[in-house]
């Protein structure tokens, strides 16, 4: 059946329509795979969904994920915005987008990247207007979410950012020194998130001053990075062999592990695939801390960060060979295994964490003796997640499937027992990367919802030109069988997401006047003798003009101010509204200035008054019946 036929047919029910659509898509997929036209359309193997299971999935989705008007979702989801640079807050299971948190991008609505407060947080790196975030993770205490912070990497400009979950704003950002491309990011789970672990992916020469470009040189390497989660300053860096992809930490607080796909230190695809096995490198956190305490570290360039050498032969690390160009690194929620996902091997490698003490104490001679099992799952395993009932779920990129398998049974099979550890293979659409089950990164994995983040959406949505959305699929895993219940289109490119129970996140409804988010601006005002909650004043200092005003629906405290052409103007506004949800905005027309000022917040923005004449400013967030009238005029005297 062609797409056209399915459109022209006149189905009796939505379920029937879906069912027909499903079948037609499968037909389309098969045809394109056969002609080889679609490089990624390989969802032919495994369990094909039947007519019945499609219909069941559709009726299931109506009851299970329906969150009616005024009803609240059970989970907060945090989606990375990929190379778009933001974090998105999504309600699960409705998959409704609740909010966007700009981080590495510039945001016109809130003024992130434009306001003085955001530039202060971004520091030096505010000059960059792009980012590429992949891995959002929530801080933990005793292996459970404490709801304080969410951390996220920026691969594009080698940064790590922190979001305060009480206000859902980025409050800290750091550029990791002497490395390129922060990719894998995970948090210490136990006893609490003291460290943010961040992998720098690419090997570079040290010093990277152009004296050599040879990746095989012994001074060419990358580093594993630990950032103090509270201060957001560098804690330490560990030099490694090969490169670093993804990482995770264990539930004892002793170890972190990371996958390496470029053990070859090659610069091209052929070279990076040369070895049949790359490895997982395991970091002994306590030994690293002890080495630094004992002063056994160096520093690089201008950076004061302690750097230790964790290359082969070091007491601080162990290298466990695994096949081949492994990608995801996932700690099982029962705390037993680090799981490395084989990518170019159809297997995942289960590293038994309980054996790592012996490996570090040299009681185990062969690092491969830590492998508890290496189950074969299908083509292109990328990431694995857990339901807290002993099952793991792995994405198969090439097979376009999620495979559910049992960990204990995989271990028994590895020992030679005849047992089928594969429980189910479910087609997803199409080519999934990350996968995330509710609370799977904590000891409270609850086995309710699974998100498969599919890299291709092809025909699942109304077409949007050559650039297609990604497709995040919601799968119900509460029963014995995985059931697909929702398709969610997303913009470039979520990579990864995380979910917390709604009771685990406590947000503020209006700002605290003492919030550190805008403390530097409050400090500046104090020097100018300004009472931000009451004063409406213009302060001039040479060609620098600071305009202070309040806002209260539907008026700015100042409806006009005068400056001279060429002045550098800083407008600081304090929203003295006390009422939840009454946010104001400030936009200076034709000056590239825009910002949010939510209740009890102070925001400021600086621009040059380069054009003489009258220039209107207005409130950009609809705040009152007289919102359109919430305006003012900047009068600029010609130079
Ligand atoms: S990576 S699709 Cu950037 Cu998390 Cu695996
Ligand atoms: Cu204030 Cu609209
Ligand atoms: Ca390799």
From TrEMBL:
Cofactor binding description: Binds 2 calcium ions per subunit.
Binding site for Cu cation Z3: 135, 434
Residues reported to bind Cu cation Z4: 495
Residue span, Cytochrome oxidase subunit II copper A binding domain: 540-639
UniProt catalytic activity: N2 + 2 Fe(III)-[cytochrome c] + H2O = nitrous oxide + 2 Fe(II)-[cytochrome c] + 2 H(+)
Region: COX2-like, residue numbers: 543-639
Region (Disordered): 1-20
EC category: oxidoreductase
HAMAP family according to UniProt: NosZ
Function: Nitrous-oxide reductase is part of a bacterial respiratory system which is activated under anaerobic conditions in the presence of nitrate or nitrous oxide.
Protein's recorded name: Nitrous-oxide reductase
Organism classification: Bacteria, Pseudomonadati, Pseudomonadota, Gammaproteobacteria, Pseudomonadales
Gene: nosZ
């Amino acid at each position: 059946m062609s797409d056209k036929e399915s459109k022209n047919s006149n189905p009796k029910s939505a379920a029937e329509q879906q069912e027909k659509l499903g079948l037609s898509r499968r037909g389309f997929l098969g045809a394109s795979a056969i002609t080889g036209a679609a490089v990624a359309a390989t969802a032919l193997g495994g369990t094909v969904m039947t007519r019945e299971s499609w219909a069941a999935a559709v009726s299931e989705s109506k009851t299970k994920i329906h969150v009616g008007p005024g009803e609240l979702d059970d989970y907060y989801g945090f989606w990375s915005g990929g190379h778009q640079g933001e974090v998105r807050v999504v309600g699960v299971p409705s998959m409704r987008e609740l909010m966007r948190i700009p981080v590495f991008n510039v945001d016109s609505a809130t003024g992130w990247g434009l306001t003085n407060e955001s530039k202060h947080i971004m520091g030096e790196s505010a000059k960059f207007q792009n980012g590429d975030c992949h891995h959002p993770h929530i801080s933990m205490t005793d292996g459970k979410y404490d709801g304080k912070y969410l951390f996220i990497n920026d691969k594009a400009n080698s940064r790590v950012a922190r979001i305060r979950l009480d206000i859902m704003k980025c409050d800290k950002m750091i550029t990791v020194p002497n490395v390129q491309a922060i990719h894998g990011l995970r948090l210490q789970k136990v006893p609490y998130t003291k460290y943010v672990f961040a992998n720098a992916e690419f090997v570079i020469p040290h010093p990277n001053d152009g004296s050599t470009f040879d990746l095989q040189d012994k001074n060419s390497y990358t580093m594993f990075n630990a950032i103090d989660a509270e201060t957001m300053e560098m804690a330490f860096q560990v030099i490694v062999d090969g490169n670093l992809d993804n990482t995770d930490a264990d539930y004892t607080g002793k170890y972190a592990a990371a996958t390496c796909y470029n053990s070859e230190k090659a610069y091209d695809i052929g070279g990076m695939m040369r070895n049949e096995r790359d490895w997982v490198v395991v970091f002994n956190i306590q030994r690293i801390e002890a080495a630094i305490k004992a002063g056994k570290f160096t520093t690089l360039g201008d950076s004061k960060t302690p750097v230790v050498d964790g290359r082969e032969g070091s007491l601080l690390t162990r290298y466990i060979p695994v096949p081949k160009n492994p990608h995801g690194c996932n700690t099982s929620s029962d705390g037993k295994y680090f799981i490395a996902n084989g990518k170019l091997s159809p297997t995942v490698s289960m590293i038994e964490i309980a054996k790592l003490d012996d490996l570090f104490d040299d009681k185990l001679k062969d690092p491969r003796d830590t492998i508890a099992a290496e189950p074969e799952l299908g083509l292109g395993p990328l990431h694995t997640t857990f339901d807290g009932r002993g099952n793991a779920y792995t994405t198969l990129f090439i097979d376009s499937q999620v495979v559910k398998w049992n960990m204990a049974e995989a271990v028994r099979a590895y020992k030679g027992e005849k047992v089928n550890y594969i429980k189910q293979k479910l087609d997803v659409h199409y080519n999934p990367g990350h996968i995330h089950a509710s609370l799977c990164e904590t000891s409270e994995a609850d086995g309710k919802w699974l998100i498969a983040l599919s890299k291709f959406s092809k025909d699942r949505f109304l077409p949007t030109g050559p650039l297609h959305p990604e497709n995040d699929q919601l799968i119900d895993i509460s029963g014995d069988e995985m059931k697909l219940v929702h398709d969610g289109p997303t913009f470039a490119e979520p990579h990864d997401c995380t979910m917390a129970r709604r009771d685990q996140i406590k947000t503020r409804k209006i700002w605290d006047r003492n919030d550190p988010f805008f403390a530097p601006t409050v400090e500046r005002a104090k020097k100018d003798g300004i009472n931000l909650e009451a004063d409406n004043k213009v302060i001039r200092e040479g060609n620098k003009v600071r305009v202070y005003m309040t806002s209260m629906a539907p008026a700015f405290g100042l409806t006009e101010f005068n400056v001279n052409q060429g002045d550098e103007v800083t407008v600081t506004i304090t929203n003295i509204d006390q009422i939840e949800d009454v946010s104001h905005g400030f936009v200076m027309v034709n000056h590239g200035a825009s910002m949010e000022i939510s209740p009890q917040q102070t925001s400021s923005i600086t621009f040059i008054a380069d054009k003489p004449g009258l220039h209107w400013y207005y409130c950009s967030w609809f705040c009152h019946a007289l919102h359109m009238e919430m305006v003012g005029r900047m009068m600029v005297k010609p130079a």
